[in-house]
Amino acid sequence: MKKVEVGDIVDGWVTGARRVPSPNCDARPAGGAIDLVVIHAISLPPDEFGGSAVEELFTNSLDCTVHPYYERLRDLRVSAHFFIRRDGELLQFVPVHARAWHAGASCWQGRERCNDFSLGIELEGCDSRPFEDCQYDRLAGLLALLRKACGVAAMAGHADIAPGRKTDPGPHFDWERLQAALAARTVCLTKAI
To answer: The N-acetylmuramoyl-L-alanine amidase domain covers which part of the protein (predicted)?
Structure first.
C-alpha cells in the first residue's frame, strides 16, 4: 500500500485518511473539550483481518447473514473516529468535532460517558496477535496530529475505561513502543487509566 501521511485537519476530517462517513455519531455536549484518545482493537469476524466488515459495521450496512458471529451485531449502532488497518491504511468515519459512539458505558478519572470528551481510534487487531509495525507508525503520527490540532493530552485503552467489560486493545498492544514513537516525534501524551 502506498504510504499517505496525515497532515492536517480540515472541517474535522484528517487529510490523508480515507473518508467513510458513519451515521453513528452526534453532537458533543456544548462547551466540552476533547481530553482523551481511546485506543481500541477490532476484527470481524473475530481474529480475522481484511475485508470490509468493520467499515460495514460502522456504516450500518453489515450483512449479518454472512457469518454466524455477525448475528449478535444485528442492531448494534457503533462507530469510531478512526480505523487503522493491518497495512497502515487510515480510515475516518466521524469528524473530530462530533461524538462517535465507540466507548459505550465508560468512566475516566471519575468522568462517565467518555464518548462526550474523547476520540476513538480502532486498530485492526485482536487479543491473540501482535499489531503491525506500520500500525504503530500510523497511530503515532495520528496522535501527534490530534495532540497539536485538538489539544488531546491523554490516551487510554478501551479496557482502561470499561474494565471488566472490554479487553482491547489487548495484551499484545505495546504501550511502551507507542510512547517511544511519540517521543521520537517530540509528542507527549500521558497513558491514563
So the answer is: 22-170
